[in-house]
């Protein structure tokens, strides 16, 4: 009976379609002047595409190791799966968190939750900016939802560590602070990039994510 239970998951893994690079919901130049077209094109078509391609390669190797019962190789592939899988997850969220019609402040339930958990929108913005500025090297600043406690939390993740997979928090808003996200325009002045990105935050998307998980 236990063997029969394994057939379906293994079959799903073997027949799984490869990950693909999602299309942006706007043109590369749509977020200018806050994030220029050259950055967006390289970020999406080169960096995110590389995570997708490398994830597919790692999963293919993992599938082969799984079929062979090669646990050593399965374990050795975990860093590649985490890094490239996280890169794909994080960027897929990031693109939808941004909008040429973004900026301003959220409304409704999300705004009420922000006021409840951070005191005010200004306090929230200051804290998320500070956490994102303070990421050492490469990583992400996040607004997450702690479903068990029913409250919003701010967190930072190193490299491409996915928020939910490493902290348990559900990702609502992610800010990419890898240098490839801003260097061509803002050089090494990360605070200037973080000041600008608030002008293109898609609060409708963040609010929708919050409403979905709050249910």
From TrEMBL:
It holds the Pfam family Sod_Fe_N. GO terms for molecular function: manganese ion binding; superoxide dismutase activity. The gene is Sod2. This is Superoxide dismutase. Keywords: Manganese, Metal-binding, Mitochondrion, Nitration, Oxidoreductase. It comes from Dryoscopus gambensis. Its cofactor is Mn(2+). Its main location: mitochondrion. It is an enzyme of class 1 (oxidoreductase).
